[in-house]
Design a protein that fits this description.
This protein is mainly α and about 160 residues long. The protein contains seven helices and three strands; from the N terminus they run H-H-H-H-H-E-E-H-H-E.
């Protein structure tokens, strides 16, 4: 069965815009910019294949999760928050990611935007159903369990804040 993995066409656009401004300001050359983004594009294409026991790929390949994210910003934000400062297990396989990486996954699931659209979205006001980073709602926990993943909180000493 051929699985379609959700991805955002705007992936990497936030940093690309910053680097383009650096080119325009003369801080880096156009040649350097072009080579950098050629290398990054090749890396993205190389890594855009299914990986066994990888939560990112299980999420991006789940049409159920993709549709829930597209239908609800609060669900997307809750999923982002759950990925922050938590460990995920599928059998013996452990998985975790940074806050920025979590934001990028959610942008891919929505098939729009970039990591910055979700990064630190749990800090501050918690309206519209948004929750703080590392909080796991019952709905998210249940949906991840359906994909075969369980969640364990990082030990307090290993938790990180946004930088």
């Amino acid at each position: 069965m051929d699985i379609r993995y959700a991805t955002s066409p705007e992936r990497g656009s936030f940093l690309r815009k910053i680097d383009m401004k650096r080119v325009e300001a003369g801080d880096i050359s156009q040649e350097y910019f072009d080579k950098l983004y050629e290398v990054l594009s090749q890396a993205d294409n190389k890594n855009n294949t299914s990986k066994e026991n990888d939560l990112e790929w299980d999420l991006r390949g789940s049409q159920y999760i993709v549709q829930k994210c597209k239908a609800s910003a609060s669900y997307s934000q809750n999923l982002y928050s759950a990925m922050c400062n938590n460990l995920f297990f599928k059998g013996e396989k452990e998985w975790s990611c940074s806050w920025r990486y979590a934001g990028g996954i959610v942008a891919d699931l929505n098939e729009k935007g970039d990591y910055i659209d979700w990064y630190c979205s749990g800090i501050g006001s918690h309206n519209d159903g948004y929750v703080g980073e590392s909080f796991v709602t019952d709905e998210i926990r249940s949906d991840l369990l359906q994909l075969g993943w369980t969640i364990k909180e990082y030990p307090q000493s290993e938790q990180v804040d946004a930088i």
